[in-house]
Amino acid sequence: MSEDGRRASLAVRARCALGEGATWCARTGRFYWTDIEGSRLYRYDPCTGERTSWAMPERLATFALCADPHYLLLGLATHLAFFDLTTREMRRIVEVEPGLDTRLNDGRCDRQGRFVFGTKHEGATLSAVQTGFKAEHGLQCGFCTPGMMMTATSLLEHNDSPTEGDIRAAISGNLCRCTGYVNIIKAIQHAAAEIRGESPTSSHDAPLTAVTT
Ligand code: FES
After folding, report:
1. Interior angle at CA 42, CA 39 and CA 44, nearest 5
2. What confidence tens digit (pLDDT) does each residue in 164-182 have?
3. Centroid of ligand 1 to alpha carbon of 142 (angstroms)
């Protein structure tokens, strides 16, 4: 219960395998989300309690509201499509990275209505930097992670034995809103050790302290 007495309660017991993309449509008063691994789009109307879901032809990674509220822009695993919520008609717009072992991942509309999205590599071996971030829990909310990983990769290409100061200087242009720089630094140190051919051990069980760059 919050300080002003409001109480949170469970609206939908969806049991999604990987629920993401919670989006409120103010025009229709409905709430949308996707179960990526379940390949299913969900809608919930809090006024009526009605819950609707649509099976997707493949994993639905992301979606966006459209100017016409009867449509959604879908970011499916391999392509973009418009989806008519009334007729269920799917209109394919474009294939994304055909021939590559990737799928769409997160996406959002900007304030001009442009849909910006990323893709992720599937079934690939993790790089040393990716392994380091995973082992040391450097991912946290993930917002700054792509930039941190690219910065770390660039740093380690030129210096496989960076000091903590080198790492702090390298990532100083990337702000982490989670302010969890400790694990990010450990992740890069972990990656450096792997690149040097050592066998780094994870320190993620060690107590954490809040440090900012
Ligand atoms: S991990 Fe959340 S912003 Fe850096």
Report:
1. 170
2. 999 999 999 999 998 789 9
3. 5
| DSSP codes, 102-141 | EEEEEEEE-TTS-EEEEEEE-SPPPPHHHHHHHHTT--TT
CA–centroid distance, residue 84 to ligand 1 (Å): 35
Average pLDDT of span 64-78:
97
Tell me, what's the pLDDT at 3?
75
* pLDDT of amino acid 1: 65
Cα 177 to averaged position of ligand 1 atoms, centre (Å)? 5
- Residue 189 Cβ contacting ligand 1 at under 6 Å: no
Phi and psi torsions of 133, nearest 5°: -65, -35
pLDDT (0 to 100) of residue 204: 59
Cα distance between residue 180 and residue 79, in whole Å:
35
Pairing of strands 90-95, 102-109: unpaired
CATH number, domain 19-121, options 2.120.10.30, 3.30.70.360, 1.25.40.10, 3.40.1190.20: 2.120.10.30
Q: What number does the ligand 1 atom closest to the CA of 142 have?
A: 1
Q: Which two tokens stand for residue 115?
A: 């849909």
Phi, psi (5° rounding) for residue 185? Answer: -65, -45
150: amino acid identity, one letter: M
* Eight-class DSSP state of 68: S
